[in-house]
Write a structure and sequence with these properties.
This protein is α+β, with helices and mostly antiparallel strands. Helix content is 29%, strand content 26%. The radius of gyration is 25 Å and the shape is elongated.
Length: 439
């Protein structure tokens, strides 16, 4: 029987420990926090969007960074298998809009509860409030860990599932990155991702709390900052020659992202599913570009169709003032801002609004845009973009290519996905694969 240490009791760590124990290994979890699954508890606004019921092709499309690395993990333990796994533990699930999967109870605590029950059923040793200080190696392979109190625990294999840097109050403070670097691994630059976008405007504060559905958000390059083209070294070819490539600059006005869905205004900018996803594309490029966020308030209508709609509304309200003629077109909270931005006097009679003014209003509704000033920090980011370089990890096993016996799973890796349950699926699948691969 092999002895396996799992460092981190989050989604990836709990899944890895369960399957390591099921495979007959003596399994120990060391978790620095006072309880397991602290980050799982707050996911999905406390409801835990535990996976997505889409097909596998769509699953891969929603992984933004290093999706090909997840091939073995996703095919070995897919979203369908994740749902079946939780149902086998007694957790009933449901599928909501966007194929998001939640527990029927709407309580993330129920997800953690069934995982804890299975850990105890499989006799996994769980040590809470027990930080790991460093990993031990002997003859170039994993040998155990040194705990914060200085004591050593020896084992045959170790699974690093410590998370990234997001929500540090849950225990994600970069320990896994530190362990990886100490072993000689590369950690790619890290950024907060799936995080609110901050805007250089006073209007978000006026609109704070306003949620918009069925809108389209896009992000374009607003300014190209001074930058030197980045030179990267590609892997050596069959003749042993490494190819050097220079990154291309994005052009002014180039589109970085576009998606349809929901968003909400915050005191400093915008958030919500489509905005959070946009942040994942912007995060690594903010040092090179300034971006502009565009909101199409009526994406289902072309400019001509929207103009015809406004004409009908104006015809019905021809004896009203402009400020009282938009109530059927826009949420009340948004009307004042749109009136101000349109440049049309709020007291102007609707029947006096010119064709040019109406056309300008149409363009504003189709492209309400703001300059992006930045992103939120790790305290509010759902995930970390960046992590342990996947070229140094065997994608078929999640084992380090540098130090045998060390495995990585979950957010500690340089793999991130969009909202909708995809990041938790990365955790479940990679945790499962790491555990399955321990001989």
């Amino acid at each position: 029987m092999s002895k396996v240490i799992v460092i981190g009791g989050g989604a990836a760590g709990m899944m890895a420990a369960i399957f390591a124990a099921r495979a007959g290994h003596q399994t120990i979890i060391f978790e620095k926090s006072e309880k397991l699954g602290k980050k799982v508890y707050i996911t999905g606004k406390g409801r835990c969007n535990l996976t997505n019921a889409c097909d596998l092709e769509e699953l891969f499309r929603n992984v933004v960074t290093n999706s090909r690395f997840m091939y073995s993990a996703f095919y070995g333990f897919s979203n369908e298998e994740t749902i079946a796994f939780f149902q086998s533990l007694g957790l009933q699930t449901k599928v909501e809009r966007g194929q998001r999967v939640f527990p029927v109870s709407d309580h993330s605590s129920d997800v953690i509860k069934v995982l804890e029950q299975e850990l105890r059923r499989r006799r996994v040793e769980i040590h809470l409030n027990t930080p790991v200080r460093e990993l031990l190696t002997q003859d170039g392979r994993f040998a155990g860990v040194v705990l914060q109190n200085g004591s050593k625990v020896f084992a045959d294999a170790g699974i690093v599932a410590t998370g990234g840097l997001s929500y540090p109050t849950t225990g994600s403070t970069g320990d896994g990155h530190r362990f990886a670097k100490a072993l000689g691994h590369t950690v790619t630059p890290c950024h907060p991702a799936l995080v609110a976008v901050q805007l250089k405007s006073e209007y978000p504060k006026q609109l704070e709390g306003l949620a918009l559905k069925n809108i389209e958000v896009s992000v374009t390059v607003d300014e190209v900052l001074e930058q030197e083209p980045t030179e990267t070294l590609e892997p050596a070819d069959k003749n042993g020659k490494a190819k050097r490539t220079k990154s291309k600059k994005r052009k002014l006005g180039a589109e970085l992202y576009r998606d349809f869905g929901e968003m909400v205004f915050t005191a400093k900018g915008v958030s919500g599913p489509v905005v959070l996803s946009a942040s994942s594309y912007m995060a690594p490029e903010l040092k090179d570009y300034r971006f502009r966020l565009h909101i199409d308030l009526k994406p289902a209508l072309s400019e001509e169709q929207l103009d015809a709609r406004i004409l009908r509304d104006f015809d019905e309200a021809r004896n009203k003032q402009y400020k009282n003629a938009l109530e059927h077109l826009l949420p009340q909270k948004l009307i004042r801002v749109i009136i101000e931005l349109s440049g049309i006097s709020p007291d102007k009679q609707v029947n006096a609004i010119s064709r040019e003014e109406r056309k300008a209003l149409v363009k504003l509704l189709k492209d309400l845009s703001f300059e992006v000033s930045g992103l939120g920090d790790y305290t509010e980011a759902i995930i970390t973009k960046g992590g342990v370089q996947v070229k140094e990890i065997n994608p078929s096993t999640m084992e380090s290519k540098l130090v045998p016996g060390v495995y990585f799973a979950g957010e500690v890796l340089d793999v991130d996905a969009l909202t909708g349950g995809f990041n938790l699926q990365v955790a479940w699948s990679s945790g499962w694969l790491a555990a399955q691969s321990i001989s």
